[in-house]
Amino acid sequence: MCGPKFCSMKITQDVGDHAATLNDPTGGGASISGTIEDGMATMSAKFREMGENLYLDADKVKESNRVL
Predict the structure, then answer these.
(1) pLDDT at residue 46, rounded to an integer
(2) Where are the domains of the chain?
(3) Predicted confidence band at 67 (pLDDT cuts at 50, 70, 90)?
(4) Which of 25, 38, 51, 55 shows the smallest number of beta carbons within 10 Å?
């Protein structure tokens, strides 16, 4: 399948270019990993606040999600 809007060779090149920048601190990969780390830190804090239990009361979880 090929055409002006879709070309497998172009898509392969774009994916390769993006993958090359993932470990580059000046590229887009650094901002993505920073966002992931911030999200994990937020969820870790929420986990500690809720008592560090794997099984929680559903109402308690619903209430904590309203704040987010």
Answers:
(1) 87
(2) 27-68
(3) low
(4) 55
